[in-house]
């Protein structure tokens, strides 16, 4: 298992989008673009595939710890962070179903 596999598995397990990964890396002063994250997550034979280096994975893991646990001064509970992240992602991707009110059929009147 290489660094790309670790990054992909964490991305799927934690339901992270590319822009969220970029924000996590910004939290540890590591600049990277969304297209680079996409290149790390491609199949190995793809023409735009890139190897994820040790430095990228190390900074992502350090940023992920800060993202989930917070800092000493401002601690967070990881469960709350994951719940809020999953609610935001599901509310955007799952359309809400309109409630239907049963109306009486035309022609039938109650007496």
UniProtKB/TrEMBL annotation:
<dbReference type="InterPro" id="IPR009921">
    <property type="entry name" value="YehS-like"/>
</dbReference>
<feature type="compositionally biased region" description="Low complexity">
    <location>
        <begin position="86"/>
        <end position="102"/>
    </location>
</feature>
<feature type="region of interest" description="Disordered">
    <location>
        <begin position="71"/>
        <end position="111"/>
    </location>
</feature>
<dbReference type="Pfam" id="PF07308">
    <property type="entry name" value="DUF1456"/>
</dbReference>
<protein>
    <submittedName>
        <fullName>DUF1456 family protein</fullName>
    </submittedName>
</protein>
